[in-house]
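Journal club prep, notes for RB
We'll compare a predicted complex against what the paper describes. Inputs for the phosphoenolpyruvate case:
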Amino acid sequence: MHKTIDTALKPLQGSVTIPGDKSISHRAVLFAAIAEGPSVIKGFLNGQDCLSTISCMRKLGVKIEEDGEIIRVEGKGLHGLNEPSEILDVGNSGTTVRLLSGILAGQSFSSVMTGDESIGRRPMRRVTGPLKMMNASIDGRDFANYTPLCMRGGSLQGVHYVSPVASAQVKSAVLLAGLYAQGVTRVTEPHKSRDHTERMLETFGVKVETDEVSAAVSGGQKLTGSEVDVPGDVSSAVFMLAAGALVPGSEITVRNVGMNPTRTGAIDVLKRMNADMHIHSERMLGGEPVADITIKSGALQAVTISGGEIPRLIDEIPVLALLATQAEGTTVIKDAAELKVKETNRIDTVVNQLNELGADCEATDDGMIIHGPTPLKGGKVESFHDHRIGMTMSLAGLIASDKVLVKDTEAIAVSYPGFYKDLEKLMN
Ligand SMILES: O=C(O)C1=C[C@@H](OP(=O)(O)O)[C@@H](O)[C@H](O)C1
Ligand SMILES: C=C(OP(=O)(O)O)C(=O)O
């Protein structure tokens, strides 16, 4: 499916409510499945990735009822999952394959996970390595680095894993395996990654010990079924905020934005870019901070984005790059080599597709350099089946001088199925 985006002829106005957080929705289903007793998840994201998590857990024998944004899960307890008779298909979801690896590492049965072509290119040794250190038996292409992964676990031993990458998927997989392991399992990262696992394990009754860059659990702790309220996904909200910042004369409000400090790097960057933004109605929802954000369009300044800030905005870099094409000065994004192992190599795809429309971006080894402001022109661009690239290029179409055709936009349903509907609401 291709989508043609027309230049926005009038300012955006009004408000949208941001749908559920993808990271939190995955975790809610996974943790509820291995908890004892029923759980109810409210505000669940019905994106393709989270639906892949539901489908894998069903194949492991978990009863899950879907009722729009409300999901009911009959927990099976830590040791109640069944050996699956079919291959577990994670679709396009890195979070599903990596977090589920941690749970499957604790099962004495055999299971096989695979996913789409993009998943088949993403590195899995970062999780299978530490899980093997804990005593899980895992095989796959290139010595368990690529899917399909074949796992048989059980009898795990706790470890202190010092991860070379700041990755919440690695941290979560190891901590989940740690629930099945003898003794204490600790993960230390170079920078703090999103901490939804630590927060939600506590909601399910597990004691997690944390400090700035480490998290630890003791094995054998059971989870108790719970009620989870999923806040809106800040990663999706940033697309709407960018639309409001870019289309001249706009003033919009995005509601229900998850404001977990491990996720709000892009909000900090928008402030540094001088975006006219007001954060209000701050509140707590399901153990996570939430707010509404009003933004007006206006002149933007170039910024430098690097270091410990990168994990706090890793998924927002494509759209921040688009904003940088319209900012005064040179934006430098570095320390972001992780972008190369996402759904696409997001350094190359972002730089090449923005340049197709007349931007002035250069790829570097660990990021990109963007010279702005440059007017964007119409054209045909690829999403390469990467949801974040599809949304970024669609927003480029709003400010380009002519129509932009974005290819394969169905991928957007991976994280934000209502993206065009929300955008159209702001355009009417
Ligand atoms: O744990 C999570 O829910 C996620 C962690 C991040 O990946 P890494 O752990 O690879 O950094 C992020 O890019 C992904 O969209 C979701
Ligand atoms: C990288 C992403 O997700 P995942 O790793 O779950 O595929 C993303 O949502 O941008």
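Talking point for the session: The chain has a mean pLDDT of 98.
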